[in-house]
Design brief:
Layout lengths: L7 H19 L5 H13 L1
């Protein structure tokens, strides 16, 4: 039998990779806060 050792450090490194990818994909999009602000202003008009 082969056991793959998956350490906390490996899990943390993978989590950081995914977080960086998410941040990069969001970088060119407006933030959720600015979207909410835009909706509020649109309703007031």
């Amino acid at each position: 039998m082969v056991f793959t050792v998956y350490t906390i450090e490996m899990a943390y490194a993978r989590m950081r990779e995914l977080q960086e990818l998410a941040n990069r994909s969001r970088a060119h999009q407006p933030t959720a806060a600015s979207k909410r602000a835009a909706k509020k202003h649109a309703k007031k008009r």
